Amino acid sequence: MKPIEVEILGRKYRLRSDNPEQTQNIAYIINEELNRLQELYENLDFTKLILLLALRKQDEIISLQKQNQELEKNLERVNQMVEKIVGDI
Fold this sequence. Notes:
Layout: E1 2-8, E2 11-17, H1 20-40, H2 46-88
Antiparallel strand pairs: 1-2
Helix pairs in contact: 1-2
């Protein structure tokens, strides 16, 4: 693991990562999203902004999981149709 430093909302954090470039990119995205939230909710402190972002991200994860389950079901149906077609040949 390599040490890296990231900055989020003006605060610097020292982290260790197996993939420093990816961690830097993630920190950049988080920082950008927190900056947008801070503009929308000027009265929220750092902790509440982080909590709001965490809640939004969890909602996004749940939505993506549902989409993934639907895609898996569709893929299974397609596989069954292909097996039927190939079996009929």
